[in-house]
Amino acid sequence: MEKIGKYRWTICSLVFFATTVNYLDRQVISLLKSVLSQDLKWDDGDYANIEITFKIFYSFGMLVAGSIVDKLGTKKGYGWATGLWSLAAIGHAFANSAFGFMIARAALGLTEAGNFPAAIKSTAEWFPKKERALATGIFNSGTNIGAIVAPLTVPLIAVVWGWQWAFIITGLIGFIWLVLWQIYYTSPKDSKKLSKAEFDYIHSDKEEEENIKNEEKVPWIKLLGFRQTWAFALGKFLTDPVWWFYLFWLPDFLQSEYKLTLIEISVPVAVVYIISTIGSIGGGYLPMAFINKNMPVFKARKTSMLIFALFVIPVIFSQLAGKTNMWLAVLVIGIAAAAHQAWSANIFTTVSDMFPKKATASVVGIGGMAGGLGGILLTWAVQKNMFVYYRSINQIETAYYIMFAICAGAYLLAWLIMHLLVPKMNKVDI
């Protein structure tokens, strides 16, 4: 690896940084739920409405963001998205009602949608197929790092300076990334820091001999005609809502079940995401190990995803484990979160396996929209009314048991549907 150069990993680190900021900004509100509920007189229904608003605009944004990134190119598209979502994150500090937060979350959802289409496009541009799952796993672990940093800093900032500053300080970090992005990022064909050996290695996939200069935009309506698009989209539809649930409700679960304070939830929430980081990176290593043993690329992805789906199932027993010790519940949820991240690293990579580079961001956008719609449906049909009802009768633990049961089965169902739609590797020719 040293002989061919390693500048591509610099690009991967930039994408990792952006993904970290992306998740740091979106998680702040879940950590401050109890404070905001008290100060602004929210109930679970108001919080669910705010969450639904974010997901609606995130879903729409994912559909639009993919095509925008494909049209503008990675550098401009990623830069604009990060700058705008950082402003939206700061804007939360000026909201003083549930409606005000709905407006701020709408802006954040719309703009944060640019991260993953741009990140996957960057990976497709800068890495050969056999390294993409690893690179995706590394940058996708930024979701965990953001989720780790948030509980360790946000509650403390809120207690010392007030909840408004928690939004302002985290939002400003995105502008640091923007400076670094402008300095270090360019496409491989234009990079002066990329050796010829590394350039050739990046473009070493024999079956991917497409013209590097081809920037033709593929309409998303055309992409919907392929089973491969639907396999990815339905996989995201069923599994993304599980991650949304962890992200937006885990602090409330710990406070509701174990009566923890705002500061006390910091460490257990961070531990869940520390464990999940292992899954994100490990999720890239496992298929690469299969590929190195001469297993076909697509079979390696799907085999890995089936293994990860099985690791989620024990989450249904998290509350039972927690009756013995809270940390056992944290461990079980952490393993499920790790399995999700491993799954996520691979489902994203199936897009660059099945589609040419010019369409990857658009397909990822369609899948992201589907994931957002799944999250909206779950929040509206289950979390919103169910959580309000069970909390009103002092049985919130029942609501969480139902949610963990849904989480446990989502991945196996998603894997089965994806397998039925695309049983074998079929490269899309556009």
In words, what does this structure look like?
Pfam families: MFS_1. Its main location: membrane. The chain crosses the membrane at residues 50-69, 138-159, 165-185, 230-250, 270-291, 303-321, 327-348, 360-380, 400-422. The chain is an all-alpha fold and 430 residues long. Helix content is 80%, strand content 0%. The protein has 18 helices and no strands. The chain has helices at 7-31, 33-40, 44-72, 74-91, 98-112, 115-126, 129-140, 142-161, 163-184, 196-202, 220-223, 227-258, 266-292, 297-312, 318-324, 326-354, 357-392, 396-421. The longest helix has 36 residues, at 357-392. The chain starts with 6 loop residues before the first helix and ends in a 9-residue tail after the last helix. The model is unreliable at 208-214 (pLDDT under 50).
What is this structure's SSE topology?
Layout: H1 7-31, H2 33-40, H3 44-72, H4 74-91, H5 98-112, H6 115-126, H7 129-140, H8 142-161, H9 163-184, H10 196-202, H11 220-223, H12 227-258, H13 266-292, H14 297-312, H15 318-324, H16 326-354, H17 357-392, H18 396-421
Brief write-up:
The protein is globular, with a radius of gyration of 21 Å. Helix 1 runs parallel beside helix 4, helix 1 (7-31) runs antiparallel to helix 6 and helix 7 (129-140) runs antiparallel to helix 13 (266-292). With 430 residues, it is mostly helical.
